[in-house]
Amino acid sequence: MEFKYSEENQKKLDEIVSHYPHKKAGTMAALWLAQEQNGWISGEVMEEISAQLEVTLEEILGVITFYTMYNKNPMGKFHLQVCTNVSCMLRGGYQIYDHVKNKLGIGNMQVTDDKLFSLEEVECMGSCGTAPMIAVNEDYYENINIEDVEKILESLKNKN
């Protein structure tokens, strides 16, 4: 399936790229816009960005494999990222990760059968002073415990 930016996103990308002396500098923004539109970075997305920004597919792949913010596979409607780095680990990050994993019946980078949830164990998300934390899509939840996670999961199910 071919990927093309929506008219609105194409305008956004053109505006972003216009601020740089070289199109390549807009790679991360191009990827982010495409992921918002497509849900993940497919081969077709990479081909479109490569053509528009005049960069190689290898350069695009280098960016998406380095940064964890880009999904290389389709994710659930609610993508849960649980931090297990040092601060979060010391304050229960692994217990929270294991709880979510068991509750949803999925492992790292897997999606529930209903496509509602996906789970990812992540390194630092910059919330060390308010650990432990999880992110649901772009929303951060800090200083959480298992009871908080239960409430978050229940509220997400009700949003569906």
Question: Could you explain how this protein is built, in words?
Answer:
It is elongated and about 50 Å long. The protein contains 7 helices and 5 strands; from the N terminus they run H-H-H-H-E-H-H-E-E-E-E-H. Helix content is 47%, strand content 14%. The chain is of the alpha+beta class and 160 residues long. A hairpin with a 2-residue loop joins strand 4 (133-136) and strand 5. Helix 1 (7-17) packs antiparallel against helix 2, helix 2 (27-38) packs antiparallel against helix 3 and helix 3 (43-53) crosses helix 4. It has helices spanning 7-17, 27-38, 43-53, 57-66, 86-90, 93-104, 146-159; strands at residues 78-83, 110-111, 117-122, 133-136, 139-142. Strands 2-3-1-4-5 form a 5-stranded mixed beta sheet, with helices on one face. It has 2 domains: 7-66, Orthogonal Bundle (Arc Repressor Mutant, subunit A), CATH 1.10.10; 78-159, Glutaredoxin.
Short structural description:
With 160 residues, the chain is of the alpha+beta class. The protein has helices spanning 7-17, 27-38, 43-53, 57-66, 86-90, 93-104, 146-159; strands at 78-83, 110-111, 117-122, 133-136, 139-142. It is elongated, with a radius of gyration of 17 Å.
- Compute the number of structural domains: 2
CATH architecture of the largest domain: 3-Layer(aba) Sandwich
Strand order of the largest sheet: 2-3-1-4-5
The ordered H/E elements are HHHHEHHEEEEH
Q: Please report which band the strand proportion falls in: under 5%, 5-15%, 15-25%, 25-35%, 35-45% or over 45%.
A: 5-15%
Helix share bin: 40-55%
Question: Which spans of ≥5 residues are poorly predicted at pLDDT below 50?
Answer: none
CATH class of the largest domain: Alpha Beta
**CATH homology-level superfamily of the largest domain:** Glutaredoxin
- CATH fold type of the largest domain: Glutaredoxin
Task: Kindly report the average pLDDT value.
Answer: 95
Total strand segments: 5
